Amino acid sequence: MAKPQILVTRAVFAEVLDRLGEYFQVQSNQADEVWSKAELIARLQGKVGAFTTGSERIDAQVLAACPMLQICANMAVGFNNFDLDAMTDLGVLGTNAPDVLTQTTADFGFALLLAAARRVTESEHYLRAGQWRRWRYDMFAGAEVHGSTLGILGMGRIGQAVARRGAKGFDMQVVYHNRSRLAPDIEAHCGARYVSKEELLRSADHLVLVLPYSQQSHHAIGVAELAMMKTTATLVNIARGGIVDDLALADALHHGRLAAAGLDVFEGEPTVNPALLALKNVVLTPHIASATIPTRMAMAMLAADNLIGFLLRGQPVTPLNVQVLESAQHAERKG
Ligand code: GLV
């Protein structure tokens, strides 16, 4: 029997393509070409599964134009590139890649926090520019990290991993805000105390954002929220662009209403607001929080396992809308 056909939308590890090739006829994109929506739709014809990344928008138009598509497996924990309601309505399963990137992403949150608070990149640029002539007592003096108050907005797996690093490694007082409060034993394990969003903003010396992007979290940090923060505070965004109002943040950083920021994600990325690019007190990285080879391999293998588990056995590993499997629309796609 012919193997089912799948599409891999972006370049990926050869090992992952080899594994997928054991079970599927794979069309890949190792040249990492940029496809328009029409090109994506054209390549999805005849495919029952897609290996996607955060770069591909999977919406009702794509789904309606690809009637054989049964599953999109995202190589990311975030899935705001999926219109999950449309996927559910149109009978397509979505999966993401949670857990495997938790520790690596939390490490990077701390990398940005330390780099921003201790002015690592700013001082490096100064040194490379040949401006370092002699030592001075207050040269690039930054904010204390150990022993300070760490605020976390969004206390899922990654938020909890950031909290543990702060509480256990840096003796920080950790406060958090989340849609729902964690169970007492989890709070104790993270060394974290639940507070209102306003108290979080007012008390944090360093605030790390780790909440998923949605209409509700759009501009969760805007002019009003920034105004509540300490002028000495650091803001770190390892969550998603759009959670912070980048222009309002740039304005606050420029006028000294906030000391520093570390940003891995941006509104409209890969374009970065020029107002941020012009500032020295912000550390900017190109969405690399989960980027270590072992972690990216694990994320890609998990996406592959979702395709294999679902298309061969009907058992996805990390489904987002498992209820879709019972729907008439899904049955129709399976033919
Ligand atoms: C990265 O941003 C992810 O969602 O995995």
Please describe the topology of this protein:
Blueprint: E1 5-8, H1 14-23, E2 25-27, H2 37-44, E3 49-52, H3 60-65, E4 71-74, H4 84-89, E5 93-95, H5 102-117, H6 120-128, E6 149-153, H7 157-169, E7 173-177, H8 184-190, E8 192-194, H9 197-203, E9 206-209, H10 223-228, E10 234-237, H11 246-254, E11 260-263, H12 274-277, E12 282-284, H13 293-313, H14 328-334
Parallel strand pairs: 1-2, 1-3, 3-4, 4-5, 6-7, 6-9, 7-8, 9-10, 10-11, 11-12
Helix pairs in contact: 1-13, 5-7
Bound molecules: glyoxylic acid
Q: Identify the overall geometry.
A: elongated
Helix segment count? 14
The largest β sheet comes out as: 7 strands, parallel
- What is the β-strand count? 12
Q: What's the CATH superfamily of the largest domain, by name?
A: NAD(P)-binding Rossmann-like Domain
- The CATH topology of the largest domain: Rossmann fold
For the record, the CATH architecture of the largest domain stands as: 3-Layer(aba) Sandwich
What count of structural domains?
2
Strand content: 5-15%
CATH class of the largest domain: Alpha Beta
Return Rg in Å.
22 Å
H and E string: EHEHEHEHEHHEHEHEHEHEHEHEHH
Mean pLDDT across all amino acids: 98
Into which percent range does the helicity of residues fall?
Answer: 25-40%
Strand order of the largest sheet: 8-7-6-9-10-11-12
N-end to C-end Cα span: 16 Å
Q: Given the helix and strand composition, which structural class is it?
A: alpha/beta
Low-confidence stretches: none
